[in-house]
Write a structure and sequence with these properties.
Number of strands: 6
Strand content: 5-15%
Number of helices: 21
Largest sheet: 4 strands, mixed
Order of helices and strands: EEEEHHEEHHHHHHHHHHHHHHHHHHH
Length: 426
């Protein structure tokens, strides 16, 4: 089942943080093309196509991210598509367009071509097929992709540098030239028809855009506005809510980036949560203690990170040891939230620490509350220990416990009657 990204779009998996959606039609064309080449070639071609197109689109996605935009990848019947906010500067547009075809060409296509021609893998049909398709897809198709034909990357580069009209004209000329070359090389008639179709489409769009006065180019106007919106979004001051939302979604990188931009204004609990999530419990505890003493709002994810990291007990000890007059109230709030938010095991530890903090006249009641909290967690041994301490201080008794619904889930435990009976002895 696909997941859904922050915009509600479905995706099947993430790679380097980018959501990737794979349509069933992506595999249709490779299967049709290689279906007559035998099982080894068919499987090798489909696998190489998937990896190569994904690598190509990752180049675009990484470039988008480098210029401050999130990106999403879609693999579909016509290849791949990476969406992201248009970069602010023209040179960044050039980098985004080139980042798709150039790395596969240089890092895979040329080395695979050299290796295959040197006879690497010649004795193994699988190795030979995979190496052949690696250089074919990443060398030949990357070069074709750089030809100035819209909507390919070469066409987008041409549009960025010279404008939409010249890019349309270049697409028509290049499309017809590519069709002639493909026919001359004896490639599939489908390839010839596709090149002609792209040339015809660009000729139609060129005439249509001129006839409707779209030389002003609504697409470029949209791009210009999108750049302005993206610039405004990047310049807008970050908020703690953005960081909390990212942390709730499991996106620690974004949460860290927002916290870094907030600087000294980042909530102490946010700093503690990020440190705890990164496996730095000692530093995290200090931030949690400071934030709880400050009575700052505590989002559910902060308690979840604290509880999940086993830090509720150390934080409670930190509050008790702080000697701050605000600590008792902060401890009460922490205990109540952990119970309300379902972190009953950690709540039991906090309740014990609270009860043990001061051996005063109210200690018996606090130990009894600790027993009730452990009962929620179903920990009979901790219930027994807390009830015993409460009874020693003259609070808990058998009648009180048997009449308290908080312990009802333990009534059927064979150990519980003896625990209750022992409260009135001595």
């Amino acid at each position: 089942m696909p997941g859904y990204d922050e915009h509600g779009h479905p995706y099947h998996f993430r790679i380097f943080g980018f959501p990737v959606h794979v349509g069933w039609d992506f595999f249709l064309w490779p299967v049709v093309v290689a279906s007559r080449l035998g099982a080894v070639n068919l499987i090798s071609f489909v696998g190489v196509m998937f990896v190569s197109v994904l690598f190509h689109e990752l180049g675009h996605a990484i470039a988008f991210r480098a210029f401050g935009s999130p990106a999403a990848i879609r693999l579909w019947g016509l290849g791949g598509l990476t969406s992201g906010a248009p970069p602010e500067h023209r040179w960044q547009d050039v980098v985004v367009s080139a980042a798709g075809p150039v790395p596969p060409l240089l890092l895979i296509g040329i080395p695979a071509f050299v290796a295959w021609n040197a006879g690497v893998g010649a004795g193994d049909p699988w190795a030979d097929a995979i190496l052949y398709f690696l250089w074919w897809v990443n060398l030949v198709w990357s070069i074709v992709n750089l030809v100035p034909i819209l909507p390919m990357d070469g066409g987008r580069l041409c549009e960025t540098l010279f404008g939409r009209g010249p890019a349309r004209v270049a697409s028509v000329i290049s499309g017809l030239g590519l069709a002639a070359l493909v026919w001359r090389l004896g490639w599939s008639p489908i390839s010839v028809l596709m090149a002609v179709a792209v040339a015809v489409y660009n000729a139609y769009k060129y005439l249509d855009e001129r006839g409707t006065g779209a030389a002003a180019d609504p697409v470029r106007e949209w791009t210009r506005q999108a750049r302005a919106d993206a610039r405004a979004q990047r310049s807008a001051p970050p908020t703690a809510d953005q960081a909390w939302a990212a942390l709730t979604d499991g996106d620690r990188d974004t949460a860290r980036a927002v916290a870094a931009r907030l600087g000294v204004h980042a909530p102490m609990l946010l700093s503690g949560s990020l440190l705890a999530a990164d496996g730095r419990p000692d530093a995290a505890r200090n931030w949690f203690v400071a934030g709880l003493l400050d009575d700052a709002p505590v989002p559910p994810v902060a308690d979840a990170v604290m509880a999940g990291s086993g830090l509720a007990g150390p934080v409670a000890l930190g509050l008790v040891g702080s000697g701050d007059a605000r600590a008792p109230a902060a401890l009460e709030r922490l205990l109540a939230r952990l119970i309300d938010r379902g972190h009953v095991g950690e709540a039991g530890r906090v309740a014990e620490i609270r009860a043990d903090a001061h051996d005063d006249a109210d200690a018996g009641r606090r130990w009894y509350e600790a027993a009730r909290t452990w009962a929620r967690a179903g920990d009979v041994e901790r219930v027994a220990s807390s009830l015993h301490r409460s009874a020693e201080r003259g609070h808990a008794g058998s009648a009180m416990v048997t009449g308290d619904p908080a312990f009802s889930r333990l009534f059927d435990d064979p150990r519980f009657p003896a625990i209750v009976a022992g409260l009135d002895s001595g």
